[in-house]
Amino acid sequence: xxxxxxxxxxxxxxxxxxxxxxxxxxxxxxxxxxxxxxxxxxxxxxxxxxxxxxxxxxxxxxxxxxxxxxxxxxxxxxxxxxxxxxxxxxxxxxxxxxxxxxxxxxxxxxxxxxxxxxxxxxxxxxxxxxxxxxxxxxxxxxxxxxxxxxxxxxxxxxxxxxxxxxxxxxxxxxxxxxxxxxxxxxxxxxxxxxxxxxxxxxxxxxxxxxxxxxxxxxxxxxxxxxxxxxxxxxxxxxxxxxxxxxxxxxxxxxxxxxxxxxxxxxxxxxxxxxxxxxxxxxxxxxxxxxxxxxxxxxxxxxxxxxxxxxxxxxxxxxxxxxxxxxxxxxxxxxxxxxxxxxxxxxxxxxxxxxxxxxxxx
Length: 361
Hints:
Strand content: over 45%
CATH class of the largest domain: Mainly Beta
Signal peptide: 1-22
Keywords: Signal
CATH topology of the largest domain: Immunoglobulin-like
CATH architecture of the largest domain: Sandwich
Number of helices: 1
Distance between the termini: 46 Å
Structural class: mainly beta
Organism: Dyadobacter jiangsuensis
Protein name: Putative secreted protein (Por secretion system target)
Order of helices and strands: EEEEEHEEEEEEEEEEEEEEEEEEEEE
């Protein structure tokens, strides 16, 4: 598994099974959610959410998370809490008190020269029963040296102790993270309501080790089911465009997300998009762009044809006539058009103005 470079995406990371050094606790089921990637001052700022399951078999006091670039991973032996020298070139450390409710700690007691991330973080826990708790830390800013020109390769470890010996705490359980590469840079994900269908489209700017996209749909934004699958077109640094047509959308709201599955078995989840397919929902979409034969076809649903206007790029209104078949319209300009871009606008009663650019070849 490896690390991602994209916005609003979620990565499910398959890490090695928990390494239990003793009975007092166990760690499992890491989940990394990527919030954003941005450039700042010549560095790459990777913002993530990190969560894990901690089973407090006999009680637990503290947990610590460390992040490295994989190339700088120091491989601590975890016989005790690692010091600054043992951590090496660590990107970030987070210290937690795991006595419920879990809280962030401003100090890393095994070595007070290590300053853990604290300001701006949020932490929460969910009681899973049986002494197990799901712990989540959000808004983790990892400053990766160098510009975001490549995919940062990041490794994370989490360890825990129930000892009150803060300075040299024994490590009672540890989960060593795998090499995490986020396989797809998803630049855009959109949906459009058509007449009796919903069209989904997305664009990637980089894809590595990815196998396919599962299109998932929900009516309540909680329970999702797969409605389609689209194969990835191999490794690429170029812009790739994908499309999927849901020919049987739900009545009312439709929530969609993409599950991007790589060849290593891991997956990441895109942000949600919502498309309203209610009986009175407005649909306005070009049917072909560039236009064909100087005629412009478009879909219009639940708005009157009189709300359509046609302009050149200078804003001059152009005359036209409309032919209609169901909710599909064909706009025929009254005067010959020169090749170039034109604007077709819907000035709706309840939705305001929606304008689309159309290329006339």
